[in-house]
Design goal:
The chain is an all-alpha fold. Helix content is 57%, strand content 0%. The protein folds into two domains: 80 residues, no CATH class; 71 residues, no CATH class. Helix 6 runs parallel beside helix 7. The longest helix has 26 residues. The chain is globular.
């Protein structure tokens, strides 16, 4: 794996919290809203490695509901420039295979990733949050093979949408995993 990629995105990121006396009944969203900006920014970067995206979401706190936060995440994602997308993609790991995937599957997916990176110059990203684990491999292979037929502009659009979906899913999991 190239050195510019992160080796792992944790399934759950720590939500910044305030000392117990400062948050009598704080839920994770309240804790996120009240956290120092640099802590909130760090938390957001675990969801999408884009400084402009994380800065924008941090700057517009507080959010009254998780849905409001997710809408802000979507809006910030839609406004990412091509350079912002490059930054975010540089921090993305390859989609993981199920632990019990057989060797030929790893070979096929590695070859597909190499072809994709050669064609488009960046990591293949795919949101798999709604995919049953037993279908992950087939879905990933089907998606990468299908997307290899895209022209670069179309693939840039699809990639931006997949990054938005990844950020949204990670943000939801981060806050819900912390009890929201």
């Amino acid at each position: 794996m190239p050195a510019h990629r992160l080796s792992h995105h944790p399934g759950r990121a720590a939500i910044p919290t305030l000392p117990e006396q400062a948050r009598p009944s704080a839920n994770p969203l309240e804790a996120f809203n009240r956290a120092p900006a640099e802590e909130a920014h760090r938390t957001l970067l675990t969801c999408l490695r884009s400084d402009p995206w994380a800065q924008r979401i941090t700057a517009h706190r507080p959010y009254p509901t998780l849905d409001a936060l997710l809408a802000a995440s979507d809006e910030a994602s839609y406004d990412l420039t091509p350079a912002d997308l490059v930054e975010a993609l540089a921090g993305e790991p390859l989609p993981a295979l199920p632990a019990d995937a057989y060797g030929a599957a790893h070979t096929a997916l590695d070859a597909a990733h190499a072809a994709y990176e050669s064609r488009f110059g960046h990591t293949f990203v795919l949101y798999l949050g709604d995919t049953p684990p037993e279908e992950t491999l087939d879905h990933a292979l089907e998606a990468i093979r299908s997307r290899l037929t895209n022209d670069p502009e179309k693939e840039r659009e699809v990639t931006a949408e997949e990054l938005r979906r990844l950020a949204r899913g990670r943000l939801t999991e981060t806050l819900r995993g912390a009890g929201l």
